[in-house]
Amino acid sequence: MSAQRSSGLSAALLADGPAPDRAEKLDLYGQFVRNWDADIVTYSPDGASHRGHGEIHFGWVLEGRAIQDVWMIPRREDRVPGAPAMPVSGNWYGTTIRAYDPALDAWRIYWIDPATNAYRQQIGRQHGTDIVQQGAMETGALTRWSFTEITPQSFHWTGELSMDKGTTWRLVVEVFARRV
């Protein structure tokens, strides 16, 4: 790809900040814009835990009408060809598009991870000081991804799964992120 085409995509995709007509609503995820280091913990169904490190990058896109992020396990600097994948979650190299939908008064979330062949759609809403995203997998299992313990310098993210229509939830992944 030529430098001209690359800069054309960057210029068309990236934005300097939120769209003025919806800036207040966009603050929900806008608070995460920038770069993060992350400690990752995954949990096998038998209760075993596995630890790794990752990186996360959030930015404004589409004239400031959406937020896009990239989540990676392991960090780019730690990637080694042929190295084993992170147990349970695999090695992420995926992106999320988060767009506020005024008709729902909620966020539409689209996770795309070709590295693990995972594709999810969720609806995200603020719940007190937390953000909770809910959706369903192709198998019918429910997903719940939550941002908790949010500060300007850190957040805790959990990925949970329910196989019984939300009666019980199993913690699958935790991310402890620190702003860099």
Question: What does this protein look like?
Answer:
The protein has 180 residues and is mainly β. The protein has a single domain (9-179), classed as Lipocalin, CATH 2.40.128. It contains 2 helices and 10 strands. It has helices spanning 3-13, 23-30, and strands at 34-43, 49-61, 66-72, 93-101, 106-113, 118-127, 130-136, 142-151, 154-162, 170-179. A 10-stranded antiparallel beta barrel has the order 1-2-3-4-5-6-7-8-9-10. Strand 7 (130-136) and strand 8 form a beta hairpin. The chain is globular and about 50 Å long.
Strand-helix topology:
Layout: H1 3-13, H2 23-30, E1 34-43, E2 49-61, E3 66-72, E4 93-101, E5 106-113, E6 118-127, E7 130-136, E8 142-151, E9 154-162, E10 170-179
Antiparallel strand pairs: 1-2, 1-10, 2-3, 3-4, 4-5, 5-6, 6-7, 7-8, 8-9, 9-10
Could you name the key traits of this structure?
ten-stranded antiparallel beta barrel, Lipocalin, mainly beta, 180 residues, 2 helices
Average pLDDT level = 94
How helical, in percent, are the residues? 10-25%
Report Rg. Answer: 17 Å
Content of β-strand: over 45%
Q: How is the main sheet built?
A: 10 strands, antiparallel, barrel
CATH superfamily: Calycin beta-barrel core domain
Q: Secondary-structure element sequence?
A: HHEEEEEEEEEE
Number of domains: 1
Q: Total number of β-strand segments?
A: 10
Strand order of the largest sheet: 1-2-3-4-5-6-7-8-9-10
Give the overall form: globular
Distance between the termini: 30 Å
The CATH topology is Lipocalin
Supply the CATH class: Mainly Beta
Number of continuous helical runs: 2
Q: What structural category characterises the helix and strand content?
A: mainly beta
Poorly predicted residue ranges: none
The assigned CATH architecture is: Beta Barrel
